[in-house]
Amino acid sequence: MQPQKQNSKPKEQKMLAEKASIFYGSFRAVADVTLPVYERQITAIIGPSGCGKSTLLRAFNRMNDLVQGARVDGKVLLDGEDIYGAEVDAVAVRRRVGMVFQRPNPFPKSIYDNVAYGVRLGNSRISKPELDSIVEQSLRGAALWDEVKDKLKSSGTALSGGQQQRLCIARAIAVQPDVLLMDEPCSALDPIATIKIEELMQTLKERYTIMIVTHNMQQASRASDYTVMMMMRADRAGEMIEFDETKRIFTNPRDKRTEDYVSGRFG
Amino acid sequence: MTASKPPRSLKKKTRLGENVIQAFFFFCGFVSIFTTLGIVLALGSQALRFFGEPDINPIELITSIKWSPNIGEIGIWPLVTSTLMTTLLALLVAIPLGLAAAIYLSEYATPKVRNTLKPILEILAGVPTVVYGYFALTFMTPFLRSIFGTDIVKIYNMASAGLVCGIMIIPLICSMSEDALRAVPRSLREGSFGLGATKLETSLKVVLPAALSGVIAAIVVGTSRAVGETMIMATAAGAGPNFTFNPFESAETMAGHIVRISGGDIDYNSIDYTSIFIVGLTLFLMTLGLNFLSRYFVNKYREVYE
């Protein structure tokens, strides 16, 4: 299932899942996924509901650790290092692999404090001018600065849904992660806000490696470079049935089920 | 669909049961309002009678620091300061311990531990306050005296009563705060963890501020309980008004004073008797003020979550 390489030069692997299986107690939610994540590319995960897309995504920054009884078999490498290694601190992993969630979840704090939150965690003695500049850069990076620069002190929860989601993106990039995981970031947004986030992803990928879970076929085909197709097996574990360049997945997939799914015949 | 079936009538019906129930619910709501009005009236009329006495100068209530109404000294401060002292001591115990326990239960404990601990904690809230009073007198006071010395700590003292009162309100503050903390949506915690925050950072910097209105409401309700606490104070804080800020001194609180005077053999027409209504009214106004304060904070810091 290696991607075709004839018309693009090989990309660096930023992350790599190796035979990763994810369990909730004795239930296997995701089975044996081997998936490379290429640096500064957008990798989309698609597939019908309940096939373990979000669960797989959350394995890439150990968010599943927060669920009691969850565990991961196999390896997930970040720059060659297994993030599930015995010596590895999950908190440190999440500082390098940030996350944007399905519903915008700004903290009930000011816009400024939302963006500054993660920065202050790592560095409580950061100077005010330095923090100001990080906040501004992050908000610019999330294409939100012009809309909020005059009201940085007002609450982040008072923004519109699309603005809130961009605030969450600003908050995530403020800590300068290597990888950004996005779990259906547009599912709670209207089409215009969705387009803005998609455009933003294209600028973000110049600096960050992005993985996105989406239910929206157009979004996956428009916005991503690589696509992972997942399905639920008979034993209800999610498996990866195809991984390839997005172009190929949407025009000439190898697996009949992928073809059926992306053409809207089921799911 | 058969055409022969007549359509259901859309005509208005009178539903008698609805009206009766609505009247009943209104009545239930009205009872509490009526009771409050009754309390204000009862306290107010007796207080007016007190101020009508020839020897009484109402302004002395807040200018004098001596309270012995039978000889015309009606400075309420000794009773107020001791009440504030014991309340302050109670809060010094109850806020840190109650809040820490709430954070533990809400953020750290596994469901199994929480479901075991919370009911036990709530049993503590059901212990009669007279039991706490004797706990103060027979455990806390000797304990304090053994630490600080018997010549410094009086047998009846505000410290013992205040600390035990604090222990009494821990479950209240803990339980209400825990409810507020748990109402904070999981998504906010995930947002924080996703940025590389630890559990402690998430609890203190995201969950606690997000639950602030509920936590403040818990503290204010706890304060009201401490201000109005009677049995612990009457048992352990001392009998007799004393204007002092030394917690190891004996000094009677407002509630303690009322229960001592009203329980004693005194003439219902004596000035001592009518004076307790002044104390009662002051106490009522203090707790009323706290309730307004609570409402203010709840509205100011309220976050509405889906």
Mind explaining what this structure looks like?
The complex is a heterodimer of chains A (267) and B (306). Chain A has helices spanning 53-59, 90-96, 111-122, 128-141, 145-148, 161-174, 191-204, 217-223, 246-251, 256-262; strands at residues 13-24, 27-38, 42-46, 70-78, 81-82, 97-100, 179-183, 209-213, 226-232, 238-245. With 267 residues, chain A is of the alpha/beta class. Chain A is globular. Chain B is mostly helical. Helices cover 72% and strands 1% of the residues of chain B. A two-stranded antiparallel sheet of chain B has the order 1-2. In chain B, helix 3 (77-108) runs parallel beside helix 6 (158-182), helix 4 (111-126) runs antiparallel to helix 6 and helix 9 (212-228) runs antiparallel to helix 12 (271-301). The two termini of chain B are 42 Å apart. Chain A binds chain B through residues 61, 63, 66, 68, 91-92, 94-95, 98-99, 101, 103, 105-109, 117-118, 121-122, 157, 168, 171-172, 175, and chain B through 110, 185, 187-198, 201, 205-206, 209-210, 303.
